């Protein structure tokens, strides 16, 4: 059975606010995540870095997998202290993976590549280094990402894609160029205006994307990253969680 996680940033209304100060304790939601059937969590960095020692202790002692630690550390030379903080959290929580992004400056490509390889040596030997192929970074375009992954000989360096973009030809291209390097996917679906919606709003697109992934041999993991209601003025955690459960059910029925 494929593991499907929930991103704790999904419920965090300050995810894009200045300072990104957390507004809830993840530990208070662990039992609900577990009862819903999620296999673990993808933990937003500030839910740990800006949390108390007691909160981190409760997260560790819950027994619920913090499967992926989600860092926004950059990989320029001046930003490596933040990357090292993330590495410390991966060790502390025993996370099987760490999500990261590269910067947007093409002229710093070699610097980013080298710093990730150096960072990898500070992580546990079995940790997946999951680079998000994200818009606004130098990993945005498949050919550029392919060249960077070619420079990362460490097989732990793997890729995250967003399969439910409206251009499924691009999804196909991701697999053609990165292949087995793609081991994780962030689940979010947007309408033609960019608003995030539940997966069942566009079942044809979602099913076609998952079919492509299956045909390409994807055997990785998923995280429900954002869902319907994200970013709306009246967003609240209860509504977001219900929408995330709908997406989890849709993924189960369609993928598994």
Keywords for this structure?
256 residues; alpha/beta; eight-stranded parallel beta barrel; two-stranded antiparallel ribbon; 16% strand
Please, could you describe this protein's structure?
The strands form 2 sheets. This protein has an 8-stranded parallel β-barrel. α5 (109-120) links the parallel β4 and β5. By secondary structure, it is of the alpha/beta class. It is built from 9 helices and 10 strands.
Q: What is this structure's SSE topology?
A:
Blueprint: E1 4-7, H1 30-36, E2 40-44, H2 46-49, H3 53-61, E3 66-70, H4 80-93, E4 97-100, H5 109-120, E5 128-132, H6 142-151, E6 157-161, H7 168-178, E7 182-187, E8 189-190, E9 196-197, H8 203-215, E10 221-224, H9 237-255
Parallel strand pairs: 1-2, 1-10, 2-3, 3-4, 4-5, 5-6, 6-7, 7-10
Antiparallel strand pairs: 8-9
Return Rg in Å: 17 Å
- Distance from first to last alpha carbon: 7 Å
Give the number of helices: 9
Uncertain parts: none
Helix content: 25-40%
The gist of it:
The chain has 256 residues and is an alpha/beta fold. Helices cover 39% and strands 16% of the residues. It contains nine helices and ten strands.
């Amino acid at each position: 059975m494929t593991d499907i996680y929930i991103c704790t940033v999904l419920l965090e209304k300050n995810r894009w606010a200045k300072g990104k100060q957390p507004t809830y304790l993840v530990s208070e939601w662990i039992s609900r995540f577990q009862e819903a059937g999620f296999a673990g969590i993808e933990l937003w960095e500030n839910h740990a870095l800006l949390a108390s020692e007691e909160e981190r202790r409760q997260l560790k002692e819950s027994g619920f997998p913090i499967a992926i630690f989600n860092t926004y550390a950059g990989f320029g030379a001046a930003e490596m202290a933040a990357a090292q903080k993330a590495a410390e959290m991966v060790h502390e929580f025993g996370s099987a993976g760490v999500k990261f992004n590269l910067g947007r400056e093409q002229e710093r490509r070699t610097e980013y590549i080298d710093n990730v390889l150096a960072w990898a040596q500070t992580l546990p030997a079995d940790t997946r280094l999951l680079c998000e192929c994200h818009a606004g970074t130098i990993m945005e375009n498949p050919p550029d990402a392919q060249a960077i992954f070619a420079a990362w000989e460490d097989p732990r360096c793997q890729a995250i894609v967003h399969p439910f973009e409206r251009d499924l030809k691009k999804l196909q291209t991701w697999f053609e160029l990165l292949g087995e390097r793609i081991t994780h996917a962030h689940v979010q679906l947007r309408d033609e205006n960019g608003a995030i919606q539940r997966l069942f709003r566009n079942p044809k697109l979602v099913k076609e994307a998952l079919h492509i992934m299956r045909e390409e041999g994807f055997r990785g993991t998923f995280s429900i990253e954002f869902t319907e209601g994200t970013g709306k003025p009246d967003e609240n955690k209860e509504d977001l969680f219900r929408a995330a459960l709908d997406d989890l059910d849709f993924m189960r029925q369609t993928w598994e």
